[in-house]
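INFO  loader      accepted 1 record
INFO  loader      residues=285
INFO  predictor   begin
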Amino acid sequence: MGRTTPRACGTTGRRGPGKERPAVWSAYGKLVRLFRERAGLTQQALADAIGYSSEQVASVEQGRRPAKAAFTEAAEHVLDAGGALRVLQGDVDRAKLPLFFQDFASLEAEAVSRFSYDPMLVPGLLQTEAYAQALLEAHFPPLEEEAIEQHLNARLARQSLLTRKNPCVVFSFILEEGALHRMVGGRSVMGEQLARLRDCTRMRNVEIQVMPTQRAAHSGVNGQIVLLETVERRQFVSIEAQGIVNIRSDRDEVSEFCLQYGMLRSQALNTEESARFIEHLAGEL
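INFO  predictor   done
INFO  writer      dumping tokens
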């Protein structure tokens, strides 16, 4: 696109040897330890009470591993934390994401609308666990198992946006037909993924359109686009390619991409045609 921005980040998001863990993990862990000691519990006693091992509790307290939502909910109850742990969970989850994606994820969490065009793959918000894991395992250079687990958990946690009620988020997804033919993870995984897309087409706040391959040239051929509007009615456009995210908020630039996206919606199959197309592909697997 030829655009640059101070919000863009060119890192790959991999945490190399010797690099510090996210500060929010350490802060969360210190709160767990504070509440545990106030409750007069040992790490083993807390572990027994919430159904985790003492090693897992120690890892969370030391900020070596992020807490999952289930850990947080159990610890909130046992430690009577008053929501102090729960309020950090979103930040803990976002810190699991690749570094290049974290700015965008923070904006996405504030969205009331999210419109995207995805030319290569099913977008993360619509991915099944198996599909997402297959993509992470295909990463090169290979990711460590711990990184795969963390990125996978964070990606699945982002999907709560689809069902968030206050405020509800309106979604529009335009998927290139080729992304639906790409056998990520094999036929079984892709069959499950298409079934997931079919289910999402029935959600009242989600629209899915397919851009047919026979539409040889269209206004999205230059790559992926995501348009966001936040609760404060601030508008952003994000473009991602090869681990580089470019986020823009200039009104004229955002307006240009909104016009482009409107054209894409008119060129793609409508929502009813797209639902039938996805159903047909699922039936062929």
